[in-house]
Amino acid sequence: MIKKFRQANQGRKILRDWVGESGTPVPLNEAQSRANVCLHGGPNGERCPYNYQGSWLWNLATSIAINQQMEIRENMKIKLEGDENLHVCDRCGCKLKLKVHTPFHHLYRHTSDHQFTQLPPWCWMVQELNKMKGRP
Hints:
By secondary structure, this protein is an all-alpha fold. The protein has helices at 2-19, 28-40, 60-75, 96-99, 104-109, 113-117, 124-132, and strands at residues 51-52, 88-89. The chain has one domain (2-132).
């Protein structure tokens, strides 16, 4: 019984780290819209050039956290069109299969102004930041 409680507690912590205090991913249509920017919103309607498929080297703790979050995503049966082509953002280093589901206010709290300046203008993160700040 105690082991199950610890596992459930750990699962809630992992989910909170991924999607924030609400523990709830954004609606699927919002996540799909974000994913579509990564998949088709780059120059000339092509995949964003920063949706990077190459290898990334994360430290062990980060790799474990990402794997745990991906496992939770899989257990939640979250699937988007084009999932197989969502990789890692070469500008921010985030795993896009996870990031597109994260509420913006949680992402905003963990993204520096400098990091925002590194994102291309077509990025959904920039678009959502501009919307939040009332910019066109």
